[in-house]
Amino acid sequence: MKYPEYRPRRLRRTEALRALIRETSLSPRHLIYPLFVAPGKGVKEPIDAMPGCYHFSVDMLVEEAREVLDLGIYAVLLFGLPEKKDPRGSHAWLKDGVVQKAISAIKEAVPDLIVVTDVCLCEYTSHGHCGVISNGQVDNDATLELLSKVALSHAEAGADIVAPSDMMDGRVGAIRKALDQRGFDQVPILSYAVKYASSFYGPFREAAECSPQFGDRRSYQMDPANAREALREATLDCGEGADVIMVKPAMPYLDIIHLLRQECTLPIAAYQVSGEYSMIKAASSKGWLDEARVMEESLLSIRRAGADIIITYFAKDVAKGL
Ligand code: PBG
Predict the structure, then answer these.
(1) What superfamily does domain 26-321 belong to in CATH?
(2) d(CA 175, ligand 1 centre) in Å
């Protein structure tokens, strides 16, 4: 194939021709919409650093959930802001904790919406780390037991999928075992298998009030410099029984999504995190970027890299726009 016999522009001439040969698609059914649940009633509080996102109390969240499904988005991902934090994060597994209440309220009012829950301790611990602390360190094995309790409490409340995001070693296996023992062998695990110690989580930490009070997360989240290690993490989680593997963040790690797509047959999810979202929002609000176009391009690039599922704060905007 050589110019002038071959002219790539021939198939770019009209939108119909372009659509005919388009390789990658983006539809609301690929998306999961993250939502933040807070205590109280009638609460819909905007999150400063994430324009268009809110803290919802359970009653308001149910309305939002209905709208999400009506827009053609099949799944939400729940994060909780508890009434109280303590060193062990014990409000994370309360039977009537904020997330547990939200799960049952959504499943009752909007049963067809898939409820995915974030399983982690950092929103619930007073020190803001994703596990319990012993001797100034996050204690891996002591944390596994607590994470299993959290996952179980979500499953008991009716969660459709649990998504551990803590990055402790062995947590997928521990959670799988705990769920199976209690009869939840049909609840899938979406593992944040490849989660980098990223500065793109900045706005989220404001949204979920979960900044570590000392140190950082680099002793458990991955080093942004590493790609082969992503394969090791994903392989471990596959072996422990993960049903879906996640890469997080998304756009700075498209190579990792692509790599896992070649090596792993499980469905792959990618999380377009708060910083990726807020950058686009901020630049667009200044008129420096065309928000709708950049949103679509960023999500398409994540799909093109190999993600089946994208978790994104843009989910509703995509569903309204497409
Ligand atoms: C909790 C968790 C975080 C995010 C998702 N789950 C924060 C973190 O690890 O610091 C970030 C999501 C986002 O930035 O949108 N472990």
Answers:
(1) Aldolase class I (3.20.20.70)
(2) 19
